[in-house]
Sequence to fold (612 residues):
Amino acid sequence: MGLLVALWAVLASVLACAGVLHAGEQPLSRIAIRRATVAVADSASVKARPAVLGLKGQSSDWVTIEFSHPNPSNDDWIGVFSPSGFSSEICQPENWEDLPPFLCTAPIKFQYANFTNDGYNRTGKGSLKLQLINQRADFAFALFSGGLSAPKLVAVSNKVTFENAKAPVYPRLAQGKSWNEMTVTWTSGYSIKEALPFVEWGPKGGHQMLSPAGTLTFGRNSMCGSPARTVGWRDPGYIHTSFLKELWPDALYTYRLGHRLSDGTHIWSKSYSFRASPYPGQDSLQRVVIFGDMGKAEVDGSDEYGNYEQASLNTTKQIISDLENIDMVIHIGDLSYANGYLSQWDQFTAQIEPIASTVPYMIGSGNHERDWPDTGSFYGYNDSGGECGVPAQTMFYVPAENRAKFWYSTDYGMFRFCIADTEEDWRPGTVQYKFIEHCLSSVDRQKQPWLIFLAHRVLGYSSASWYEIMMGSYGEPMGREGLQDLWQKYKVDLAVFGHIHSYERTCPIYQNRCVQDGSNHYSGRFNATTHVVVGGGGASLSPFRATVPYWSFFRDFDFGFVKLTAFNSSFLLFEYKKSRDGNVYDHFTISRDYRDVLACSTDNCPRTTISV
Fold:
């Protein structure tokens, strides 16, 4: 066993150098904060201004850091800590025989001291402009020497805080369990003992009503391992969800988040708006954006290691710029890449706020949300950094029967989306397999002709190098074996996956054969499901294998997302857009009268083989 572990370590190192491994490295994980020591220099200093942020009610603001060090070096860096009393926290040793560390809380972000300061090594003086978001606590800035592997605390700044650090922030819309229900989830620093959460909402320009919100949170002991339980832990605050019901189809609504304090006063967010979902089967223009594996990045350039998730800013920028032409977003797993550093969830929800506060932001579960050994996840890896799904299922609402199980269906007008959870067992005989078949078989194709299957890991086809080297396959082992008959039987138009950080589209394929040639236009009867990998939302790209399989019609080693546009019940436009410019680089259309699909209702679809 020891030899196997050693061989795996060598292989992993080689693959990482070759750019094949795509799991990523959380930038904060590079900081050996538990090895930190004190090297305070009297002549060193760090000053931050302004001391109070968000004076106009905004949830993000800029702060200027000025610092000096008598013995500067290229390894010096500034860490942003929140709460500000990071050095006073009582640290517990990870092992009983170890001494307690001096510091046990990772910064929420960091930047090297010589960033934009070319003369720092000569003068020992520099400044940085950093963007902070409201995260329910105050901030302090610390100057370290010794690099990230052996940090030495040199100086600490004054405290900086938002005017109302507890304010309600970062609303996330999601579809409810019925077509005419919208849910609003947000974060605040108010417990239910301090204030009652609610949403004030109503038709634009019409009567406004109040809907109460439920409140959830989680503690350190809910985490399954390190770093989420140790250096990455940060109090998540309180997560509130309200259900806005009996909406009129396609109507425009306004809303704002509220908290009623014990003295009767109210704390308000700014006002937002959304458009209610169309009635199932409604023949109108309907547009949905899909991608996976985005992550988050800092607009000030901090926290970046090898630009691992920098492209996520381009993805969000392009979606925001086209938001008037988007009705819903589906992010199919690997959301924030917090990987056990809980502060990053706030930063992710802040980055997507312009999108998620305006259109439903539906999510799937990925390995970086769920996977952790011995916790019930299908894969026993440590990709979640000890989170084991808890932050994701608390921070976001999904219309699932069990929020710990991220499989669910959601209808939007002429679309039926069946969203599977690849981090839980999906094979025949399991509860999830039964859900998948029920989701596919129970849809009324007269009302919702466009049937889409989505999951994080590639249960279909991918020519990525990662699958070739790690699995010796073209997708997850056991993936399509149990599902391809369902896709064919129930005539699934598209199967969309993430996990592989690039874009690929297949021919309409079944049982490893192209039932129809790849094309930019399909018409007539349904032949087979087209498989799409769209995991290029922002995390570092995944290369392809050198040879192109016969079933791979289009592939692109770049960041991007997919947009589906249903013009009516018989014409669908599929577009792949690059995040760098928002232009279309692959597309196809489907035009069908769907008489063959309408002949297929619950449990009476004839079995189809490649010989038919």
Remarks:
- The radius of gyration is 25 Å.
- Residues 284-598 form a domain with the Purple Acid Phosphatase; chain A, domain 2 fold (CATH 3.60.21.10).
- The chain has two domains: 45-162, 284-598.
